[in-house]
Design brief:
This protein has a single domain, classed as Alpha-Beta Plaits. Helices cover 23% and strands 33% of the residues. Strand 2 and strand 3 form a beta hairpin.
Length: 91
């Protein structure tokens, strides 16, 4: 499973509408409306890295009101429950 974070800038008048549309897309796990230079952060989960462009370009990118997207692939997860279970951080 691959997790990607999609940072999205939206027309200010369409943030709520766009956020709701993104949340309905397959492989979108959660959508946050945020403060700062971005408007929305969407957390994606896909089977493999080759599926990310389909979600971002063919799904998120075609929603009216989206100005820009910037996507980052997560390569390691640090969660308290994993650390407590002896999860190796590679040290």
């Amino acid at each position: 499973m691959v997790t990607a974070l999609c940072f999205i800038t939206v027309d200010p008048n369409k943030i709520n509408e766009v956020g709701s549309e993104i949340a309905r897309l397959p492989n979108v796990r959660v959508v946050y409306s945020v403060t700062g230079q971005l408007d929305i952060v969407a957390i994606l989960e896909v089977a493999d890295i080759d599926a990310v462009p389909g979600v971002v370009t063919d799904g998120i990118g075609v929603i009216p009101g989206i100005v820009t997207t910037e996507t980052h692939i997560a390569f390691r997860t640090y969660r308290p429950e994993d650390l407590g279970a002896g999860f190796s951080l590679g040290y």
